[in-house]
Amino acid sequence: MSTPTGDDGFLHELEQDVRAELRRAEASEPAEEINGVPIGEWLFDPVDVQREEIGLRNLLGAVEAMESAPSHPHGSHLAARDHCLSLVRAVDRPTGMARYGRMFPGLDPLGTDPQLLMRAGGNGGVCDAAAVLGGLGPGDDDAAEAAGWPFFGQLVAHDITADRSAIAGEVAPDALRNARAPKLNLEMLYSDGPIGSPYLFDLGDPATFLLGPDGADVPRNQQGVALIGDPRNDVHLFALTLHVALLHAHNRIVELLREAGVPDAEVFDRARITLTWHYQWIVVHDFLPRLVGRSLVERVLAEGCRWFTPPASSAYIPLEFADAAFRYGHGQIRHTYRLLDGGPAVPLFPDLVGFGPQPAGRRLDLAQVFDLPGRPPAQRAKRLDGRLATSLIGLPEQVTGSTDVAYRSLAVRDLLRGETTELPSGEAVAGLMEVPPLTADELEQSWPNGTPLWFYILKEAEHRCGGDRLGPVGGRIVAEVLIGLLRADPTSYLSLEPGWEPTLPAAGPDFGLADLLTLGGTRDR
């Protein structure tokens, strides 16, 4: 048999690599229990592993299709072999999975009875908002910021964290693995670029992303599974719509670069860096000020981080961030959403669940959840108060996989996750930071040994910031980690050019997420 050469040789090698990875994934499928601990009590979701296998099968099918496909009749742009050789190239990722760690290693783990956690997070528990819905008037549960911001936060979480570890019993930090590089580099969008992930890009123009037939969806295989950089961005309509908006923004940046005369061999790299740096800017100057307060962001930028200072190229994700503070967004999910002006109000789950093609009539107008130029104010996020919307207390099976009813509650999952990873109490972290702790009345729930950090941060937001943003403990953790990750990344704008400012068009004096979301739909310079 002759050895394939050129493009055929590349695709042949890619096919062999994908087949090998798929064999490893299939060989590592977990049993129903590990060390006597049932699947429902593991830190990671087995459904993530299943989706990873689905992604590999999709990639294999895409490669096989490309190997057998004729030359593209409209192909005018070739994928340069060094498309990944940029500031954000895949070769810069750590070899092997990145690690988690502790932000406050000197604090003892809380240790709470799991049954107490399950009662608190289950139906009728202190985390269930259903009990107070009857006493709320119109707008009583609304926060100051627009309803789309927690979903943007979800995409940020997908960009920097992906747990693939089967965890049971006591957990040491060095046993945890993160399948994402701890960088705000839009890996969940670009994956391995046009060479490593060719199924994400237009075969005739590999510098641009491939979109669904009407441009409102991502491409999908014949079974409806998304061909996407991170399958979790297909979990519901909001994450999917934001992902698609970012794809359109990248494609528009490619157009602008070509209009400016950038050589075709450089267009993809320039577009990726441009989008990534604007995204990083948004995280620092638009997202964080809304979430933790502008004064705290300015202090951390000016004075540096006190609790999270990883050296360059050695960043990690603190468990206090991943398993507590940055799960704040679960408490901001509204009870219902309008997708269009005058449309019906529906809950997030099960009505807007993803993992399949969205019906043509179910499209989200982003102006319903973000304040966009020239449009009326959007719906607001739910107030942070420690209670989760009913649709999150009973997640659909498409999200959780087949599991016990108790584990359908996202609040139960959040509380148990903090217990499994041995997080300290909220009071202990507040004491270390020299922040006055919440009172027993403010917590509304008796916790014998201290309050789980995740719940404490939500109640702190309610009583210290009116439910509009995170308080001093939660805000400090989130601000230091996100800014610390950017400072530890030698390719971020904050490391390379701290004085850099956005170059893309803005509707007002300051560039923000609204400008990025509308970029793909405008031809204004």
Automatic annotation (TrEMBL):
Keywords, ordered alphabetically: Glycoprotein, Oxidoreductase, Peroxidase, Secreted
Pfam families reported for this sequence: An_peroxidase (PF03098)
Localization: Secreted
Gene3D superfamilies referenced in this protein's UniProt entry, alphabetically: Haem peroxidase domain superfamily, animal type
One GO CC term, this protein: extracellular region
InterPro entries attached to this UniProt entry: Haem_peroxidase_animal, Haem_peroxidase_sf, Haem_peroxidase_sf_animal
Biological processes per GO annotation: response to oxidative stress
Main location as per UniProt: secreted
Regions crossing the membrane: none
Top-level division of the source organism's lineage: Bacteria
GO terms of molecular function: heme binding; peroxidase activity
Secreted among keywords: yes
Identification of the protein by name: Heme peroxidase
